[in-house]
């Protein structure tokens, strides 16, 4: 399946009680982005077990890794729910959907505040963003870092495949300080 279009749609949530704007999906589908206001983040912080993360990183790339490079990252529940909703149609058709996560960096913490659903190609077991320069233009416009990606496994359980680990590692090596 190939999703494509000519325009970029931005949705901004400015208050915790205000939902994201409605996004109509037309085929071919446009690149879609959804932004969560940073003020909606509470004081909850989820920090991974650094030993586990380090071991996974070492095992996936065969290189050493140190926990001194780890930073807290906060991701809004609403943002993940929005992704699940946007991916629902593809998931029901057994097609993977991917999204790019945009984050700001403040006080030693990355705050994921943007979800971009890019133009993409998807199958039951893979998805690939196309026209990636559009993704970078959207992130640059909002002064955000590409924090990583999110995607579905419509016919499998939730897990990180070796490809997922390598893809995320690439984001971390290239973009994080």
Automatic annotation (TrEMBL):
GO biological process: protein K63-linked deubiquitination
Any one of the GO CC terms: endosome
Signal peptide from the UniProt entry: none
InterPro entries according to UniProt: JAMM/MPN+_dom, MPN
GO molecular function: metallopeptidase activity
PROSITE patterns with a match to the protein in the record: MPN
Protein name: MPN domain-containing protein
Lineage of the species this protein comes from: Eukaryota, Viridiplantae, Streptophyta, Embryophyta, Tracheophyta
């Amino acid at each position: 399946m190939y999703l494509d279009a000519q325009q970029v749609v931005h949705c901004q949530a400015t208050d915790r009680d205000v939902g994201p704007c409605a996004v109509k999906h037309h085929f071919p589908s446009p690149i879609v982005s959804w932004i969560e206001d940073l003020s909606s983040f509470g004081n909850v912080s989820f920090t991974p077990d650094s030993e586990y993360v380090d071991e996974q990183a070492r095992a996936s790339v065969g290189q050493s890794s140190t926990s001194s490079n780890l930073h807290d990252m906060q991701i809004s529940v609403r943002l993940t729910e929005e992704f699940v909703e946007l991916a629902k149609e593809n998931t029901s058709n057994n097609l993977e959907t991917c999204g790019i996560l945009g984050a700001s960096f403040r006080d030693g913490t990355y705050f994921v505040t943007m979800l971009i659903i890019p133009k993409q190609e998807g199958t039951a077991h893979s998805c690939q963003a196309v026209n990636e320069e559009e993704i970078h233009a959207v992130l640059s416009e909002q002064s955000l870092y590409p924090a990583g990606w999110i995607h579905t496994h419509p016919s499998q359980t939730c897990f990180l495949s070796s490809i997922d680990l390598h893809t995320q590692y690439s984001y971390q090596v290239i973009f994080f300080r």
